[in-house]
Model the fold of this input.
Amino acid sequence: MKEVKINCPLCNKSGKIEVDEEILENSQRGIAAINVQESLICDHSFVAYIDKNYNVRDSFVSDFKIDLPGIKIQKERRLNEFKHLDKMNLDSLLSEISAVELASILNGVFSKQNVL
Done:
């Protein structure tokens, strides 16, 4: 990790962020877009373009922000729904399904399609 000094494009407050060296080494064009989250330097969230020499080429504030849902809470809730299932029942169910049917079911589940 290497520290890079950066300024917020809105309020011009400066601070340092740590950039993983592998990100810049693996970038095809020699420049990496780094998302600077709010409260890291200031109250704003922005994107900074950093070159292989760790110089900030440009930075801008995005027009939109994506909020990720609480995935951990959803997973715990889903696990609680299936706690009543008995492992023996699951084994007997799997013994009745052919390999082709199981592959089709798993394909539908992982591609988020209706299985039934």
Remarks:
- The first strand starts at residue 2 and ends at 7.
- Helices lie at 21-25, 71-81, 87-96, 99-110.
- Residues 71-110 form one domain.
- The two ends are 49 Å apart (CA to CA).
